[in-house]
């Protein structure tokens, strides 16, 4: 099987993350893809593990033959995709047209998964003499609450016996995401939480008898706009830009004829390297308390922002860039505003970087696609980088 056929197969196996919605059906969660990966690794004849993260959702970990005295590279790629509502191409057919593969996950990130799987397969079958030890992790729940990568990193942070493969920190984390074959060496993280305002319900014909929680939230929103503007003026990270704040969801009220007694919003605060994901919430709270004459409630975050800094991945990224140049010249190191698993790997004490086929501009789109040319080049880069990492390490 080549990377193109493999990608088509991966797309045909739905692994949609419900994103917190109360939905059901065969297209949701990673179970079928997890089973495919287990079967794939079993047929390849490598040691692998399927480890439950939350009920029904597993990480799958496989590794090449262990060799002493060479570095261990963790290649990570997530199993889940975003939902498919509104797509204008068949989401699960893996349609090939004009040098592209279309379908949900083609770009984010089953294209990267196909490239990594093929590179891993070649490493196993060819057993290059100068190869690193390679662990391939296929993690769950990247698109929503990142439980998969948190569980994976805990395997070496707090060994519990759940894994016999990943019992100590690897030397490097290489994460698959669409980067257009550039190397992401720094990126933002995201802290997300809710703010709640409360009021007093009454009949809408006598609104002065109550306290409108939505009106109160309007004042919160106005203050948050002011805070967001102040953030945009702060010193920017040279690769990731300034921190940002956005309100993406608002909910309130039960009926148009009732003055609402509750309103909530959901906040996305992008954290740049050097910022603390919890402290940024405290900054928002302090700012709002200074501006508002009423009480509000800050609910606990469901994601705490962890950014990726370029402070400790320079040597590894130099090596990767030299490999990319032999396959497809004129690429570079970049920073991006979105987050990836690399931040959590780095937080676990392991240098990390991000590389893969496709553009973030195609991720999550109604006609998601990836170029076949990039798919094949990414496979070759993954393979060559890992196949020679042992020799580079030994000579350094």
Automatic annotation (TrEMBL):
InterPro entries documented for this protein: ArgE/DapE, Bact_exopeptidase_dim_dom, Peptidase_M20, Peptidase_M20_dimer, Peptidase_M20A
Enzyme Commission number(s) from the entry: 3.5.1.16
Taxonomic superkingdom: Bacteria
GO MF assignments: acetylornithine deacetylase activity; metal ion binding
Required cofactor(s): Co(2+); Zn(2+)
Example GO BP: L-arginine biosynthetic process
Keywords: Cobalt, Hydrolase, Metal-binding, Zinc
Residue ranges of domain Peptidase M20 dimerisation in the record: 185-293
Protein name, UniProt field: Acetylornithine deacetylase
